[in-house]
Write a structure and sequence with these properties.
mainly alpha; Tetracycline Repressor, domain 2; elongated
Length: 207
Amino acid sequence: MTAHSIRDAALIHFARDGYEGASLRAIADEVGIKKPSIYAHFSGKDDLFLHTLAHAFKDVQRRTLEYFRDHSGLPLEQRLKGLLMWFELEYNSNASARFMLRMCYFPPLALYSEVMDLVYPFLDGMERSLTRQLQREIRNGGMPAVPVEQAAIAFMTFLDGITVEIIYGSSRRYKRRIEASWPVYWHGIQYLKVEAQTKVPEGDSSS
């Protein structure tokens, strides 16, 4: 039995029960092995948890890049707003997304630093991906020039603010927050565009 089989079973249990609730014995039973056999591949529960979480982050990152690729023909506004709706579907249907999101908000205290070492690179990667999407749209003439890094950070802040509804709230509340907040974000980008175009360069004494 391979480490991958153990990790795949652990993903289901950690996503459903969290770190504290997941049992190595139950994971072993799921795979069809004895609990001590897990230690041939992982040093213990912490090691299995962190390997499984790292895999979940990579899986969500891969699926996010696939989302952008599969929806590249849509206007940027539809693509970005659609990402928010897609993210909820991923949480409800994909164990990697569910595990990843829950650990972003509820990491086990004993492994907090190790979990954050996975969280922050993932978020930084998402931000870079969004920045590239914006840059590509500007180059192709799909939108006027905007400060792309600022717009990407604002999107990530927006996503973080509404994502809690997936865990704490309901689909109805999640969609309601998107519909109420999205126009504010999108029009905010347009404001950044106007501000960037009208800002007086440093050293200009004409005023």
